[in-house]
Write a structure and sequence with these properties.
single chain; alpha+beta; D-amino Acid Aminotransferase, Chain A, domain 1; D-amino Acid Aminotransferase, Chain A, domain 2; 8 helices
Length: about 280
């Protein structure tokens, strides 16, 4: 497998960045995770737009334009002869010294990885997963909550504590106690036939897959509410599912020790999952 690092393709085993790169030292960078179907990245423009928005937010000047990033993604997919793939594009502030201060003349580092990926294990979609609302909190006042920062430790610890308690995934609340998102996914729930998802001002990532589901629901005339969600409201939902670019639509059938609905993926969840999958094939 080949990896793209700062304009060069190298063997994955030999792929290296400097120990002085600020991405390694401080998590000083941003990234995008994408999925390719039939050799084409789904919603590529949206991912690149979000990446550039994140770079602006953390004050990293993009080393090249959007067309360049799109071209290297397609090129690496071809080099690695990939059709169905996981794609991760990361941009750091670049190589610097110790200390959080930096000069504006640092050269950003670009690392692109593309590898074979055929989706999450089938059992997760057929049976659904379990999730726990953990004690870790999402800082809804932080500028990082709306971008894919390389500083992911809060999510890592949240997932660890959920797994330690016997659950597949962690769900976080914000500093005000409202539900935000799962460790790597946005969250939706169904109540009385309507779809609800935490609003952006709850402190969530504006997920690409999240927006796809909102758009699909609009076309299917399914009511969607984006608003603040309390933990009891989530726990009493008829259906719950998670969304991200890799999992697509992932049913949640248990919240803590409580079954969601009848403990099986719900009908609306299944409909939206099929609709999402159909969209990836037609785009």
């Amino acid at each position: 497998m080949k990896v793209w690092i700062n304009g060069m393709t190298v063997d994955a085993k030999g792929a290296k960045v400097s120990v002085f790169d600020r991405g390694f030292l401080y998590g000083d960078g941003v990234f995008e995770t994408m999925r390719a179907y039939a050799g084409v990245v789904f919603k590529l423009d949206e991912h690149i737009d979000r990446l550039f928005g994140a770079l602006k937010a953390v004050k990293i000047k993009p080393p090249r334009g959007k067309k360049y990033f799109k071209s290297i993604i397609q090129r690496l997919l071809k080099i690695n002869r990939l059709k169905s793939a996981y794609v991760r594009l990361a941009v750091t502030r670049g190589e610097g010294g110790f200390g959080i201060g930096y000069k504006d003349d640092l050269r950003p580092s670009v690392v692109l990885v593309a590898k074979q990926f055929d989706g999450y294990p089938e059992w997760m979609h057929e049976r659904g997963i379990s999730a726990k609302i953990v004690d870790a909190r999402q800082n809804d006042l932080s500028p990082l909550c709306g971008i894919k920062s390389m500083n992911y430790l809060n999510y890592i610890l949240a997932r660890f504590h959920a797994k330690e308690s016997g659950y597949d995934e962690a769900i976080l609340a914000n500093t005000k106690g409202y539900i935000t998102e799962a460790a790597t996914s946005n969250i939706f729930f169904v109540k009385n036939g309507a779809l609800v998802t935490p609003s952006l001002d709850s402190g969530i990532l504006p997920g690409i897959a999240r927006q796809v589901i909102i758009d699909i629901a609009g076309r299917l005339k399914i009511k969607v509410s984006e608003r603040k969600v309390s933990p009891p409201e989530l726990s009493n939902a008829d259906e719950i599912f998670l969304t991200n670019s890799l999992a697509e639509v992932l049913p949640v059938t248990h919240i803590g020790r409580k079954k969601v609905g009848n403990g099986k993926p719900g009908k609306l969840t299944q409909l939206l999952a099929i609709s999402y999958k159909s969209l990836t094939k037609s785009s």
